[in-house]
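Schema walk-through. Below, the input block comes first and the output block second. Nothing else is stored per chain. Lengths vary across the set, and this one has 223 residues.
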Amino acid sequence: MDEWIRQPAFAQWIEDSLARRENILAVSNQGTLLRCRRDGLDLVVKAAMGRGLVRALRQRTLLREYQAYRRLAGVAGVPRCHGLVAGRYLVLDFIDGTPYRDAVWADRGRWFDELLALLRAIHGRGVCHGDLKSKSNLLVTADQKPCVLDFGTAFMHKPGFHPVNNRLFEHGRRMDINAYVKHKYHGRYEDAAGADLELLDYSRIEYWVRRLSGRPVKQIPRR
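--- output ---
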């Protein structure tokens, strides 16, 4: 972490901002995002909110997210993590860009090619995101690059012989890639072809959830 981020004064700034409802970037059901600009840095601070068991569970999610960011250090397209302040506030770089839902692309095809490469880099570090079907977790940066946000649902691969973990990680990896295909084709799986159709690989669980909920499955391979 940068030196001033380690100082007690920064933790106090976070707590004061939360108490006074100042410097708030966004609020979600998971917690509060603060924005801090200082000494050439533009930062986002994630704080778990709530009380009792609810807060404890959200704090645990924040810790898992921190562990995911540690694995992903240096991966372009993932916000840089500056660590945990006071053991409970996650500090990340603010990324300038447009939410996926509102984005306008100079070259949409290239953006998705780069997103696929980014997902493969993330998976190569032993992390799967788990919630990329939510458009709020994708960003088109100011320089038209993909950025993946919010690793609170991330799952991490354990090296070696861990059959349950390995199977769950593979399931999460497939979910991420399926989400990529879904977004690229605006949810119209019947339009997917060639290499993208080969990428689409629904697990039995995903397949039957879609089928039982009445959503189309004809074009979705079940493997």
